[in-house]
Amino acid sequence: MDTSKIFRKRMTGRKFVVHTEDLTKPTGNMQSTNQESLGFKNYSIAGETFMLFVSSWNAGGITPSDNLELEELLDTEHCRADIYVLGFQEIVPLKAGNVLGIDNTNICSKWNALIEQALNKRMAAKGAIDEPEVGEIQRVYPVKTPNSNNSTAPDFQCLISKQMVGIYITVWVRTELHGYIRHPSVSCVGCGIFGYLGNKGSVSVRFFLHEKSFCFVCSHLASGGKEGDERQRNIDATSILSRTLFPAESLHHLPRKILEHDGVVWLGDLNYRIHLPDAAIRSLVERKEWSTLLENDQLKAELAEGHVFEGWHEEEIEFAPTYKYNQNSDDYYVSNHKLKAKEKRAPAWCDRIIWFGKGLKQIQYTRGESRLSDHRPVRAIFMVGNEVSGTKKEPGSPMSNRFVDVSNHFNKSIND
After folding, report:
1. Least reliable range by pLDDT among 254-268, 320-334, 389-403
2. How confident is the model over 256-293, as pLDDT tens digits?
3. How far apart are CA 214 and CA 223, in angstroms?
4. Which three-class secondary structure state does DSSP give residue 203?
5. Rounded mean pLDDT of 389-408?
6. Which residues contact 197 (CB under 8 A, 6 or more apart)?
7. Does residue 121 have a cis peptide bond before it, meaning omega lies within 30 degrees of 0?
């Protein structure tokens, strides 16, 4: 089936944003509070399929313009996901003042304003409701009652955001789904200067969607293009896995470590390079011989040898290397032959999305084409399955019987 049909979704509402810049503690009562304020009813849903959009982008320390359009990155013309997880690296230049000083939250607000505009713009303008076609996945949500006070609710709201120096992650959730997300929290790990400063490291976010726990790790690992630098990247990744710790709750037994969650997605500038001479890499890139290049990709080699990310998965890469470009150009950067080895920058797939756990099925892995920085963004789309319990559906509900088809479709797809 055409994936663009899978992603079509009913849209209404106007623009609005809730930005939770420093939300670091779980909020156990979020579900009931949001449901009441939005006027939603509870329904029992045996199984649901949700669409999850994940993207990572190294912004190269470039401040986005006010008119930067993110529709191409978010693919809003063809994709309507339920949850958007967007991770950035180098949203500020990694100079001493930014690494040692207070985080510049203004830049985060600017990115969130652009995201909010992109996610809600097309839906508000479209106005009309698309009816699902035969065979298309139908989302299952509690319907808004005619007397509810949520007619001006946004299509998407920011669930949680967090910055550490240049690393920034922000999560956006469809309004109808917002009330079913619980225990959002964050954890930051610095792996940079002295092994602890935040010029490198990770910002991780976790939350529960119904009864399933999900964790998203946005990271920027050690740089360097010379042989052996991949070992420091492995060390950074291992340190993030061991040091990331989410807050405990006295009334709930919640997962606190990354790998304790049901589904985990790791995104970011992982900085792994290609084990070939510069000239060979450029020649293969020019001929678009991705398979030969990927045979020499450091991350794939480290995964295969069990040096890092044991048990993790990555979808097949079928796009050009995302690094390093001349700014505002489609041309790859050419290093001066007089530069030291560590300063040379051959093309590579530095920007990656990998995943771990159950209940995730990746159905897309592509890149965006914005010229803002020397990196191109990457994006992935997942189908996410959840077992849900709640109050009994009212007879004659508009949602009745829909969940059976959705559950069957997901169970079949997840095992394909």
Report:
1. 389-403
2. 999 999 999 999 999 999 999 999 999 999 999 999 99
3. 28
4. strand
5. 33
6. 99, 100, 165, 190
7. no
Q: Which of 195, 349, 226 is nearest to 285 (CA)?
A: 349
Q: Which residue has the tokens 């944003």?
A: 17
Q: In what order do the strands lie in the sheet with 181-190?
A: 181-190, 201-209, 212-220, 263-269, 351-357
Residue 52 forms beta bridges with which residues? 83, 382
CB contact at 8 A, 368 and 57:
yes
- pLDDT above 80 for 12: no
Nearest to 54 by CA among 295, 215, 252, 229: 215
pTM score over 0.85: no
Mean pLDDT of 100-125: 86
Residue for token digits 């001066």?
336
Q: What is the pLDDT of residues 175-196, one digit of tens each?
A: 999 889 999 999 999 999 999 9
352-383 burial, b if ≥16 CB within 10 A, otherwise e? bbbbbbebbbbeebbbbebebbbbbbbbbbbb
Q: What is the mean pLDDT of residues 385-397?
A: 39
Tokens, residue 211: 């009864």
| Cα(93)–Cα(59) distance, integer angstroms | 9
- Position 152 pLDDT exceeds 90: no
Q: How much is the pLDDT for 154?
A: 85
Which residues have CB under 8 Å from 387's CB, separation 6+? 46, 47, 210, 211, 212
Three-state SS at 359? coil
CA atoms of 361 and 79, how far apart (whole Å): 16
Which residue, 188, 189, 203, 211, is CA-closest to 262?
Answer: 211
Angstrom distance (rounded) from CA 84 to CA 167: 17
Give the Å distances, CA to CA, from 144 to 175, 254, 381: 11, 31, 27
Neighbours of 97 (CB within 10 A): 10
pLDDT tens-digit profile of 20-38?
Answer: 334 433 333 333 333 333 3
The three-point CA angle 16-386-81 to 5° equals 35
Radius of gyration over every alpha carbon of the chain, rounded to an integer in angstroms = 21
How far, in Å, CA of 83 to CA of 7, rounded? 12
